[in-house]
Amino acid sequence: MSDRQEQEGERRPEPTKRTWGERVDLALPLINLLIAIHKIVDEWVMPLV
């Protein structure tokens, strides 16, 4: 199996090393989306329940 991988030139991608600041920058859009969904649920769905 390793011979076939060498022939095809396949390599495992190098793991990317990120700092905590970069990780937070990547997570911010997801956090903002979750906050927006929470606000919509609070304002529009909860009064109907």
From TrEMBL:
It comes from the Bacteria. This is Uncharacterized protein. It comes from Streptomyces prasinosporus.
